[in-house]
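Handover notes (outgoing to incoming on-call)

Open items:
1. Rieske 2Fe-2S domain-containing protein: sequence verified, structure written out, both below. Nothing else pending on this one.
2. Nothing else urgent.
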Amino acid sequence: MNFAPPQTASSPETLPPSGLPEWEGEGSSRIPFWAYTDPAVYRRELDRMFYGNGHWCYVALEAELPKFGDYKISYVGERQVIVVRERDGSLNVVENRCAHRGVRFCQKPRGNARSFVCPYHQWTYKLNGDLAGLPFRQGVKKDDGEVQGGMPADFDLKQHGLTKLKVATYNGLVFATFDHDAPSFEDYIGPDVLPWLNRIFDGRKLTILGTNRQRIPGNWKLMMENIKDPYHPGLLHTWFVTFGLWRADQQSRMVMDSEGRHAVMISQRNAGGEARAVTEGVTSFKKDMALNDARLLDVVPEYWWKGPTVTMITLFPSVIIQQQVNSLSTRHIVPSGPDCFDFVWTHFGFEEDDEAMTRRRLRQANLFGPAGFVSADDGEVIEFSQAGFRQKGAEGSTICELDGRGVAPTPHMVTETLIRGMYGYWRKVMEL
Ligand code: FES
Ligand code: FE2
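Rieske 2Fe-2S domain-containing protein structure tokens:
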């Protein structure tokens, strides 16, 4: 499998000479199309949302790297990093870029190593990113004793390691940041969203069930929006509305952190009655649709649900954590230019699961992933959105005004408040 993303990062030459566009008007309920398409805006986003300003980005699950030396390639924004397990059990995250001539030296997506050696001139790095040594540092001694070449006498190995990221592990999740002044991960997530993370990640050991990857030709924020948008699931997704997994009359709650950047959509299946208004005139509702294999929806309640059957968590800017009945996944957003992102799904369960539960989680995972009965719709509609923005040009904007123009947690799902929350924050950090 090819894990490398396309090299389509916008270059400075493509920036408009006038700099960044102006966001006219107040608030965050009308998002200009250029927020999704402009290369200069995108460059500032990478710097502020992914590489700086105290943002933590998801890079892995600990269960992917159980043993000393286990590593995987991951991303923070467009920058490729290596997540690796140290001898003492801790995790390092270092940038996959040689200090010598900038080579992306590690090419295997996963493996086990005691050190990293760049293939070009064999500079060798410890697992923590320190430069351990390099060939011909003292030059080459000829037979007559004369020494040729070598690095300058003041060349200091300690000054030339890999770029090291600050790392946070949280009950099996691994996050990293280039910003060494970032707040603690717990402070970053905040007290409103953290309990919902704890509900799934309470310290139980995770098991990895599989991964999918897809490339979606749309702006990365559209994926965040999609999972902050409880308006669409009961309308876009035939599967959800027909089989009752997500209906607008379900008992629901929208939670967000104090900044408006992280959120949780919480809902409980079949707990809100069966209002006809929810399916009447909804063209995606297929009354007569039935499953050939009913095991796809063999839902078994779990003790840790404590009510909700669905929690969709968006941790800005890089990851979505999905619990939809018995199916669990992390979905890593890897931006690649303003018009494209890679979406990496890791489906997981718990070590305490019996074989039947593991099979069940795997069967239900068919709803999700690139070709999932539900998620294929989202990938497609994001592509359609980006196409629409390009068609209209810079002068238009989206409308996110369901349930008003303000930003507040809500006790129902007939709202676009979480999207407004994210763009309120985005606008502030971007200074637009
Ligand atoms: Fe890596 Fe020269 S570029 S050793
Ligand atoms: Fe969706």
